Amino acid sequence: MLRTYVLVLQCALGALAAPYTQAQSHFTTCSDGTGNVFNATVIVPDASFPNVNGNPLPHGSEIAVYSESNQLCAGVVTWHGANALTVWRDNPLTLQRDGMQAGEALRFRIWNKSTGAEYAGDAVRIAYESGHGRYRDDARHVLADLSVDIGPQNSQPVGEL
């Protein structure tokens, strides 16, 4: 009986998937939340004007959230305008860490599809309209600004394809 319920739930969630949902091509090792029901949501509205040096982030680029140590990708979305990004919590039933821990700061990485460059750290500027940028179950963070500033101090991207 429980197995039937889980199957129905998975089908229902699949039917509610957001338009433009597609597999990531850059942040492929990101947690998919398998076996975990706890998460937070980061909303990236068009009004937050995601950009790289003032140029709009190209559609098909990716926005990822990493743990404070920058070792674990806990959520990713392909940018197609006004997206919501699910950030997964660490599943305490697994031996290895697979998500965020309570109170941990959200660290963003941006991959620019047009240039193949990935940006992180001081180059990525985040401002919140609501939320505080720390993981909490069922939290909702709305971004007011998501931009990459490649000035003299941030001239090197994380990597290029």
Q: Would you give an account of this structure?
A:
There is one protein chain. Mean pLDDT is 79; it is low at 1-21. The N and C termini lie far apart (47 Å). A hairpin with a 2-residue loop joins strand 2 and strand 3 (55-56). The protein has one domain. It has one helix and eleven strands. The chain has 161 residues and is mostly beta strands.
Concise synopsis of the structure shown:
The chain has one helix at 2-15; strands at 39-44, 51-52, 55-56, 62-66, 73-78, 83-88, 107-111, 117-119, 124-130, 140-148, 159-160. The protein has 161 residues and is mainly beta. The longest helix has 14 residues, at 2-15.
What topology emerges from the helices and strands here?
Elements: H1 2-15, E1 39-44, E2 51-52, E3 55-56, E4 62-66, E5 73-78, E6 83-88, E7 107-111, E8 117-119, E9 124-130, E10 140-148, E11 159-160
